[in-house]
Write a structure and sequence with these properties.
203 residues; 7 strands; alpha+beta; 2 domains; Pnp Oxidase, Chain A
Length: 203
C-alpha cells in the first residue's frame, strides 16, 4: 500500500486544477449565495477543537433558517438538543468553522468557511425564533471563504432519486444503549419512546 505524503505525489494522481477554477472562491456572501441560503433547510456545521480533532453536526429548520446578517456575516440559530455541545465547546477553543448548505433535489451545494462565535443576545435570538420559541444560542460566522461545490457527489450517490433509495434505516438509541450496558429490551423500548416524545415536543 502506498501512502500519499507529498503534494507532488497527490498531484501526480489527481492532476492540477483548472487555473481559473479558484476564482469561484470569494470572501463574502454574494447574491447567488444569499439566494441559495434562503432556500436551504439543512446544513452541516464542521468544527474542530484546540487539537484539531474535527466534528460535523447536522442542523436543520425551515428553508432560510440561517440568517444572512450582511455580506460578511451569517448567523446559525441553535435549537434544543442533547446538551453534549461538542460544536459549541469546539468553537470556544477554536473559532474556525466550515458550513455546508444543502437544498433538496439540488445537486450543487454551497460552502462557507470562517470564524465563529457564540452569541446570546436576546433580540437576535428572538429574531431567529421558530415554532414560537427563540433560539437557544446563535452561532455568528464571519465569512472568510464562500463558494459553490459541483454536484458530482449527489449525482453519483443518487441521493435525490427515490428509486435508488434502500428504504428507511431504523436507528434505535435504546437498543444500542441497552446492548452496551447488558440491559433488557424493556429499557431499550423505554429509551426509544422517550426519544420519540422528545422529537415531538422539543424541536
Amino acid at each position: 500500500m502506498t501512502t500519499i505524503k507529498t503534494l507532488e505525489q497527490l498531484r501526480g494522481i489527481i492532476g492540477e486544477p483548472h487555473p481559473e477554477l479558484g476564482e469561484k472562491n470569494i470572501n463574502h456572501i454574494d447574491e447567488y449565495a444569499e439566494a441559495f441560503i434562503a432556500r436551504s433547510p439543512f446544513i452541516v456545521l464542521s468544527t474542530a477543537d484546540a487539537q484539531g480533532r474535527v466534528d460535523a453536526s447536522p442542523k436543520g429548520d425551515d428553508a432560510g433558517f440561517v440568517y444572512v446578517e450582511n455580506k460578511q456575516t451569517i448567523v446559525i440559530p441553535d435549537r434544543p438538543g442533547n446538551k453534549l455541545a461538542y460544536g459549541h465547546t469546539n468553537i470556544l477553543a477554536n473559532p474556525n468553522v466550515g458550513v455546508l448548505f444543502v437544498i433538496p433535489e439540488t445537486n450543487e451545494t454551497l460552502r462557507v468557511n470562517g470564524q465563529a462565535e457564540l452569541v446570546a443576545d436576546s433580540d437576535l435570538l428572538e429574531k431567529l425564533a421558530a415554532r414560537g420559541k427563540p433560539a437557544v444560542l446563535a452561532i455568528r460566522v464571519r465569512v472568510e471563504e464562500c463558494f459553490f461545490h459541483c454536484g458530482k457527489a449527489f449525482i453519483r450517490s443518487g441521493l435525490w432519486k427515490p428509486d435508488a433509495w434502500q428504504g428507511r434505516h431504523r436507528v434505535s438509541f435504546g437498543e444500542m444503549y441497552a446492548s452496551r450496558k447488558s440491559l433488557d429490551n424493556a429499557v431499550a423500548e423505554a429509551i426509544d419512546h422517550s426519544i420519540d416524545e422528545d422529537y415531538r415536543q422539543n424541536l
